[in-house]
Amino acid sequence: MTDLSGAGEGGTDRRTFIKRAAAAAMGASGAGLLAACGTTTAGGTSGSGTTAALGPGGLPLARPYRPVTLPIYSDNRAIESGLTPEKGPLQLYNWDSYINPDVVKAFERKHGVKVQISTFTTIDEAVAKISSGAVQFDVFVPELVFLERLAVGKVLQPLNLSYIPNLTANVWPSLHSPWYDVGSRYTVPYTIYTTGIGWRADKLPGFNPAKLANPWSALWVQGPKIAGKVGLLDDQHEGLAMGLLHNGVSDVNTENPRLINASKNALVQLVSSANMKFDTNEYQHLADGSLWLHQAWSGDMASVPTYAPQGTKPSVFKYWWPTDGRGPINNDTFAILRGARNPVLAHLFLNHLLDTQQVFKNFTFLYYQQPINAMTPEAVVKGGLLTPNLNTTIIRESQFKNGLVQGPLSTQGEVLWQNAWAAVKSA
Amino acid sequence: MTVTGIGARELATPAAPAGPEPVRRRRLLPAVLRNPWGRPRFLVLTTWVYIAWALLPVGIAMLFSFNSGRSRSVWQGFSLRWWWTDPSFSVFHDPDYTHALVHSLELAALDMLIATPLGVLLALGLARWRGRGSGAANGLMLVPLVTPEIVMAVSLLVVFTQLAIVPFALIHLGTGAQVVGQVTFSLSYVVVIVRSRLASIGPEYEEAARDLGATPIAALRLVLLPLLLPAILASMLIVFALSIDDFVVTQYMSSNASTTTIPMFLYANARGGTTTPALNALATILVVTTLIGIGVAYLIYTALGRRASTGEVSALRDLSGLETA
Amino acid sequence: MESRSHWRAFALPGVVWLGLFVVVPAYAVLAMAMGRVNFLLQPVPAWNPFGWNPGYVSKAFSGALPGGEYWPAVRNTLVYVSVALALCFAVGYPVAYYVARHARRTKGLLIMLLVIPFWVSYLLRMLAWIGLLSSDGYVNQLLQTVGITHPPNWLNGNPYSVILALVYGYIPYFILPVFAGIDRIDRSQIEAARDLGATPWEAFLRVTLPLSRPSIIAGAALVVLPMFGDYYTNDLISASPHTNMLGNEINLFVQGGPQVNLGASLVLVLMAILAVGMAYYVYVTARDARRFA
Q1: Is B200 on the interface with A (CB under 8 A)?
Q2: In chain B, whose CA is at the least distance from the CA of C220?
Q3: Shortest CA distance from B256: residue in chain A
Q4: CB burial class (10 A; 0-12, 13-18, 19+) of residue B69?
Q5: Do A414 and C36 lie within an 8 Å CB cutoff?
Q6: CATH superfamily label, A2-24+57-192+330-383
Q7: This prediction's pTM
Q8: How far is it, in rounded angstroms, from Cα B92 to Cα B251?
Q9: What is the pLDDT of residues A323-369, one digit of tens each?
Q10: Inter-chain residue contact C259 with A424, CB threshold 8 Å
Q11: Are B271 and A303 in contact (CB < 8 Å)?
């Protein structure tokens, strides 16, 4: 991003950056920009009900059945092959504690450089900072929902995959050219994690969502019997997706106001019948027994035993996610920022993250799975990294292919989802 | 005009200090009934119960730094893992933590050094100026108190990254922006506290000094500032505390790893359960460091105070905001 | 008046600071409320009033009225903060009074003890409470040993727990200024009242309490105003929508997503609600300044 960083110092160009990004999007895609960048009107709920075909930047909204090739711009190209790595320090911009420090140290030793990790707490904070040009980082961890926006805004730089042989060597074949980034032009996969149902078998003997006609109704069936002991992830997308699945809707990226509204109503009803809590500390609450039944992320569930008091057997913690894979999945990625000062080193870092040994090392800290061929439930349990009854927190590629992956929404869709979620949160 | 605390008390009870004591003791029971405030049984109880209530969790938080598991609220056995034995994640093996500690203290010191004088001057100005605009400035000063932190953080971020005019374009994310953000919200605390103190002091002392020929500045320095000292010290403590525990504004104003503070580690767990009791160890270090800092300041203060005056002023009390003069 | 100018000069740096870093960001909040978001979902403030889009602001204000979608949060906020303030006074005043007037040799120690909680992260202290208050935590075990067979479920989305947590979090900001205020009351005034025949109670009510009023108002301002925007306490201690406060609504919209302008509009609602209290503070401090000056 030489042109940008050069100008960015003066400050004048920060403000114009967004405008330029929007103009670039216009150039790339022509029509559709209004639909994507249009101002959201007051209330926002006046959506017509038709699913927007075009998403951010005029690209189609990426879906497994509608793969998207992110555009490459003439003024934002990948680096050449075969360059010598820079001296660093490599600047990583990441969620707090979202990588094992030992994995980073291994990279530092291997390449004789320093890695500095800076953290953000909301994706919006991160996007605000990097898109304004106010900060300089090399490597970033974009969510899929922001990926198209960031690529079209030229916030990311295209990858040169010749530096990242581990992508094809180690990663699940279905992610060599994923639907959200055909050809892996901008990203390599980081963790994938499922969103299922966690519970305490000792507090709920005989309970298992798998026994229900619709397992996703577990909170509605069991919740009222144990009111006050039930939790939902305090996450707009996860929460409403649970309501959708309870209602039998498997499109967890829908922009249909009727379906979103029905999900909202189901959750509002659950708030009062089960006195439901909203938090993202399910690992803590299940571990200490303050909650017994909680919508949960697979990685958090895998780590629950390490939070349990002495005397609590790891076998009391259970996690259900459909064996056929028809359940919610998140797929985080790593990418290189356009402003990177160490682009070669950044590529090597991405490759390092996909090294099988590093992936296992990362798991011992994160408890989140990476989509690596070697990382099967059996391998993880056999390595002593996971208690056997929680092997459901690791999925196989065959399940992943059926998964309901969280994708981007149009801006108007985001408004629909947020208003529904706000109504649930103040029910 | 400055009298020591003990001196003031003696002055204030001129009627035979030794005499009334036995008399009061005889009337103990009715006195308690008529005056639960005067003979402070109820007060003693309230105070100590309150202190237990306030301190118990501090002790527990420190204790959890010795937890053997990853939980910060469930006891899993004793270990030194998070202090020392864990080679990767313990406090003393993670240079990021020590760096964050230093940066936290740095910010707290800068915040204190800027916000306190700025706030004291503003309070003095607002209290005595009373011209056009002072009411507006007084109301304005409350706005940071009212603004939820996340809103202040987002609006400052917008201002610093989108307004390309001086002085905003000169303030870059990082230490500079962090100090500006922290000073902005701590300023209000200083002004509110110092103003309330000014209101109860009244102008008489100052006027007396002026009548005796002191210049306004001399009257301020010799009379008003000593009288304001408890409020100024209380403000400094509050500013320090605000800075040391601030998370949202400091986070949003941060630029990169070099501007990470301890609260940023403490509060960030957006992506699941990877935080550990090493953070409790870190908080413990912070408390101990602070106490040592105060202790050293106290020693310096007493050393200077002994040389400067022979009064029996309790330096500790002065220092902690408490009683002077 | 020759002194007028130097007082104004004292205020100048602070006023400039407020202008730059309070007025401008406050205007940015207004401009965000009246603005839009771009395709990166970032707020684009409408700096120019001619470009204002008041839709979100009117949505926020109408929603905050009784019956509106934000009314439960507004109501909870008003109730919780009022009760919490009353408790801060009921607990904080006696403590400040005792330490200021009665503690002798223990005074320095007490002050240290009052200040220490300030230096430990609020989050860690809250986590400690959560451990203590959990259904089989030490607090309930203690209650059971003293014969209370059905101890309350403290963390059950219980408004009382939220209020207690608010008091716990903010009361140090009340005690310190009130202490500084009471500590400086001239004892001779109280003795004078006693000499004139006032009972200790009367002396307290007629002398000490009125003289400490500026510090009570200061302490109240320091706890009430931030409590109105607090969301973290509620998230930690209740996590239930039943105890949602206005700060939680604001946080939901401001921290991310496509409607930062709605969050900013709700801040305007908050300011409007507090404008009465702030005006009262400005009025009272101005009057005190006039009376004492």
Answers
A1: no
A2: B192
A3: A118
A4: buried
A5: no
A6: Periplasmic binding protein-like II (3.40.190.10)
A7: 0.83
A8: 23
A9: 999 999 999 999 999 989 999 999 999 999 999 999 999 999 889 99
A10: no
A11: no
